Amino acid sequence: MVLQIAQALGPVDQDYLLEARQMQALSFAVHIPLVCFGVAFPALVLGMEWLGRRRGDPLLLVLARRWSKVMIALFAVGVVTGTILSFELGLLWPQFMATYGDVFGLAFALEGFSFFVEAIFIAIYVYGWDRLSPRAHMLVGIPVVISGFSGSLMVISVNGWMNHPSGFRLENGRAIDVEPITALFGNSYFWHEMVHMYLAAFLVAGFVTASVYAVAWLRGRRDRYVRVAMAVPLVVAAIAAPAQVVVGDWAARSVARNQPTKLAAFEGLGRTERGAPIHIGGWYDEERGEVRYGLKLPKLLSLLAFHDPNATVRGLEAVPPGDRPPVNVVRLAFATMVGIGTLMAIFGVALLVAWRRRRALPEGRWFAWTVAALGPLSVVALVAGWVTTEVGRQPWIVYGLMRTEAAVTGAGGIPVGYAALAAVYLALAAVTAWLLRRLARAPLEIEAGDGCS
Amino acid sequence: MGVAELPLLLALLGLAAYVVLGGADFGAGLWYMALPGERHRRLRDHTYHAMGPVWEANHVWLIFVLVVVWTAYPRAFGSIFSTLYIPLFAAALGIILRGTCYALRGVVSGPNEERVLGVIFGLSSLLTPFALGAAIGGVASDRVPVGNAAGDPIDSWLNPTSLLVGVLAVATSAYLAAVWLTADAERAGAAHMTEAFRRRALALGALAGALALGGLAVLHSDAQRIYDGLTSGGGLAAALVSVAAGAATMVCVAGRRLEAARWSAAVAVGAIVAGWALAQQPQILPGLSVDQAAASDATLVALLVSIAIGALILVPSLTLLFGLVLRGRFDESPMQLGSLESAGRPAATTGPRTTGPRHPAGIAAAVCAAVGGPLTFASDGGAGLVAGVILVLAAVAAGAAYLVPQVAVADTDDG
After folding, report:
1. Are residues B81 and B219 in the same domain?
2. How far is B302 from chain A (nearest CA, A)?
3. Partners of B289 in the beta sheet?
4. What residues in B contact A101, CB-CB < 8 Å?
5. Residues B311, B362: one domain?
6. B160, part of any domain
């Protein structure tokens, strides 16, 4: 009886599967940029404090202190949006949770502890300015950096498992012989996702922070405070950007090996081909099973996916139409991610070369505009990356084993819930934008030690 | 108690912690709304500040409860969430609104904006505990059957027991907050504020106590099983502990023994959770015992081991945080503001000592990148790939260590 789990809740008919998926996607899209700040920002803040104390430079300490206040506010919102996600796992996908909760749940328990530790020490850190000794203050910052990393590691291990399920046996549609540790951490598919996301966190936190100060610079604030506040996160992101290309290549090869259908959707490859091409632009025509009106680059897909221009790449036709993801969504998201990622990598290399030549960052309006644009673009690339892997996994929630339609709730009201959630998030976005605009217009001055009340 | 029950016990401990710590926080939100206008500014600021350092940690308890339940009792979790989707979604909306108001509080200006924020903050502080309580009421009154959305979507939470538990959750939250805010105000030496919250604590204590005792009548007619459980055996013991602790709190608050009142109020509220659990056992849902709902042993053991390891880190961390808060180390103190000089004192090494082009971190970054990049690119798995990826990450770290100190001093002259 104990193992009577799979489909134990009974099959249901859900008319609003697409809305349920969109609702989940919306919640992720709101949460994931905040995660980047939870993962990468603590390292930046702590590095600033360390440097400021070592040099006795009050400006760097003011910067670290201000950033730490932003950090805790973003973390507070991240706690909230993360709670929403855990609610939705039950509200929208009860069958998935009931069937496989015991296979992957452990990772969420560990993530819960990471979250706890981060919440505790982020509070001590932010409220501890001036109240703890400098050494103690920097020490309490270290658990924040570590738990930010470990928390995302746990969550991504679940995503890796959903994409490449292992660590259990299926018998009559039921998961038995569950080995949660193997399922989560013995998974060959999970590590590239983890490293890719970890670097993405630094790209997003770095470029977004730099873009805020680039806007301030464009508005005429050109003192050292603004320049340092822009330069530090910018060089961190600039270094991470080329590294992300190498890691992204690794990720693409893993997908090619483990999820050939997803890879085929990346490029809209209908038929299995030797020396498969890449198309730039155009769209995938399902009837013909090929990309139309795109610029064809021969053999490039084989080269990228297998590092061999003549390798055979499996096309979408290898699986029945019902097992293929929505190709154009995946293809557009993938192109967006790769396009912006390439742009960021070129920018990063150019910045490093410029620094090597002149020992100074470029100046001028075009440069500030570029930096200002890279912040939002990095968030777009981040979300596009998640769309690539998550929509690319469809129609499966557990790849090859459980369809998303078999996981969904039988409850009504999904359109109402989706509309309510979208309205709330839109209203919050509007209020935040309005407040930020006002902040940007208000005269900024460096207050000498702002309290953290 | 076997391996199947232990996770449930831990989840209930987490729930009790959330009801007490998160509850006090919701209560503070209610008081924030209930104290409008310039006249109450100091009380309101006190309320907000008291939440500050523990806000995030208090709300992680809920996540802890959810993950333990879905890992250890996946079928019960799926059934509860699919039937009780209306109150749970309402709670989720409340959590979003509340968290955003909390984060935005420092940015709004002017009495009108603050008033709007206070009302949204207060209403969401009302909605969330009520909705969560109503959901628990549905489980307690056996209205959630096993299955994907198998229960009635309305009656499962709009029923006498749910309303009772929902209202009780709001009342205990406001009560706990009032007691704790009184103690905080006394510690801060604010006599007027202490008096203001003390009166409110006494009133809310009487209200919450009356609700809890009067609620037994509701349970008698609507949830006979829970009523029987609470009037006999372990359930009765827990109920008596709650009553005794509640009475002791009233005595302590009346007699100004406020630090003791902090603890007894927490016990009074926590014991209600214990009483419910004892009355409800051994069934989680109708026809689904704890043993039947439990995941496989391998999962349960792995979960318990990781909770044990997690607790080794968590308990000292929480002790540190609450120790600092309860000792008043994070209380507002105007004198501490603007002491930047002391913060910037350790200026042992000054100047751009690290800017030489031959800095080892720069060389390390270049070497790691030159080796790691091609290695990652060329490896299809195994040790080569692992080494390559580690080298690439090391290159990023070393590169940042090399460049950040340089750009941070790049133009000191005009600063």
Report:
1. yes
2. 7
3. B283
4. 70-71, 74, 77-78, 295
5. no
6. yes
Residue of B nearest to A83 (CA): B63
**What's the pLDDT score for residue A439?**
65
Alpha helices, DSSP H, located in A128-189: 134-163, 180-185
Could you tell me if residue B243 is inside a domain?
yes
Task: Return the residue in A53, A131, A234, A250 with the most chain B beta carbons within 10 A, the one to mutate for interface testing.
Answer: A250
Note if the pTM is more than 0.80. Answer: yes
| Closest CB from A56, A69, A439 relative to B344 | A56
Residues of B in contact with A246 (CB under 8 A): 372-373, 376-377, 392
Say yes or no for a CB contact (<8 Å) between A439 and B54: no
Question: A124-166 pLDDT, tens per residue?
Answer: 898 888 888 888 899 999 999 999 999 889 889 989 989 888 8
Q: Which two tokens mark B184?
A: 């905080």
Q: Are residues B108 and B230 in the same domain?
A: yes
Same domain, B106 and B247: yes
Structural domain including B282 reads: 6-331
The answer to whether residue B350 sits within a structural domain is: no
Choose among A101, A127, A246: nearest Cβ to B74: A101
Domain presence at residue B342: no
d(CA A449, CA B397) in angstroms, rounded, equals 29
Residues of B with Cβ-Cβ distance to A69 under 8 angstroms: 106
Query: Where a domain ends, among B315, B331, B347?
Result: B331
Question: ∠ CA A104-A107-A113 to the nearest 5 degrees?
Answer: 150
- Alpha-carbon distance values, A422 to A159, A354, A429, B103 (Å): 24, 44, 10, 20
Number of domains in chain B: 2
Supply the ipTM of this predicted assembly. 0.83
d(CA B302, CA B297): 8
pLDDT in tens, B36-88: 777 888 888 888 877 777 777 778 888 889 989 988 898 888 889 889 999 99
